[in-house]
Design brief:
D-Maltodextrin-Binding Protein, domain 2, 25% strand, 2 domains, 34% helix
């Protein structure tokens, strides 16, 4: 299935928010907007009564689930600059899950560090937000595995700062706020640098992963580390980006629900139904991440 988005202008859009538009590479077209033709590729999903029966009473009564995702992470979730709607694998998959459950899906956006507090406050029911599985998150969330990811390092084409995947010590490296890369991956590598008598990594946090990458392109930092699917997708759209390798552990990313919400059985069953009927594979292929699927909707509590 062909990819259903046009990426032109997205990095420039986030660059304006950083005040970096003047530093953006010439390869980024500032005259066009992201425009989607996903409607032409809509996938019909029917309600499954026995799975809908797993919904907690409060969600069934209100008739919708409030989903939260992040922005700046194409092809997982990103803004269509023409319609101001959020597009990508996460919006599509969360809608398909809601269809199986026979309820409406409402979608909100937040930075990754705002999501768990929002779930705790019952502002959000479910997070489709590329969350790495960590012991800290498992203390407060049920996590349902839904695709495979890894942390990869991106640099400007030609690697002008001579960043090595085996030696990030002393380099300024960008990550997104609240991310697995910020909280686990880079601190562990930086600690090892110091233990070896080298300079610590200068870890720079940004609101999202694409803003970190824009800082690389503008020369403000040496590299950015982010989820592999995001970097690999951006590389197909922006010729000035180069990946130099993976860092830290690889594994499944997860959908998050509050431990006391009772939502994880319904989410898990709906996702497994989408896998069994082929819809899940269709959505992966639609967004060019068909190699990252998991075989089972496994819930961790």
């Amino acid at each position: 299935m062909r990819n259903s988005i046009k990426f032109i202008g997205l990095l420039t859009t986030v660059g304006l928010g950083l005040g970096l538009a003047a530093c953006a590479p010439a390869a980024v077209d500032t005259s066009a907007s992201s425009e989607s033709d996903t409607a032409a590729e809509a996938i019909t999903v029917e309600k499954v009564d026995e799975i809908a029966a797993l919904l907690p009473a409060d969600i069934a009564d209100k008739g919708y689930m409030q989903v939260v995702t992040t922005l700046g992470m194409a092809p997982m979730n990103f803004p269509n600059t023409k319609t101001n709607e959020v597009e990508g694998f996460n919006p599509d998959l969360s809608q398909a899950v809601a269809d199986v459950l026979g309820i409406e899906r409402k979608l909100d956006t937040a930075t990754i560090d705002q999501i768990i507090p929002g779930i705790d406050a019952k502002k959000y029911d479910v997070a489709f937000a590329n969350m790495a599985i960590t012991p800290e998150r498992l203390e407060v969330l049920d996590l349902v595995e839904y695709y495979l990811s890894s942390s990869q390092v991106g640099v400007k084409q030609g690697n002008p700062e001579n960043v090595s995947i085996d030696d990030l010590c002393g380099h300024a490296v960008g990550v997104s706020n609240g991310s697995f890369q910020l909280n686990v991956v880079l601190p562990e590598i930086s600690d090892a640098c110091v233990a070896d008598g080298k300079q610590a990594i200068d870890i720079q946090a940004y609101p999202d992963q694409q803003k970190a990458l824009l800082a690389v392109l503008s020369g403000r930092i040496s590299a950015a580390t982010m989820d592999g699917p995001i970097l690999q997708y951006l590389m197909t759209k922006e010729p000035e980006i180069e990946a130099i390798g993976k860092v830290g552990p690889s594994g499944p990313s997860a959908i998050g629900t509050g431990k006391e919400s009772g939502m994880s059985p319904a989410i898990t069953a709906a996702l497994q139904h989408l896998m069994d009927t082929g819809v899940y594979d269709e959505l992966l292929a639609k967004w060019g991440i068909q190699d990252l699927g998991v075989e089972e909707a496994k819930v961790l509590r």
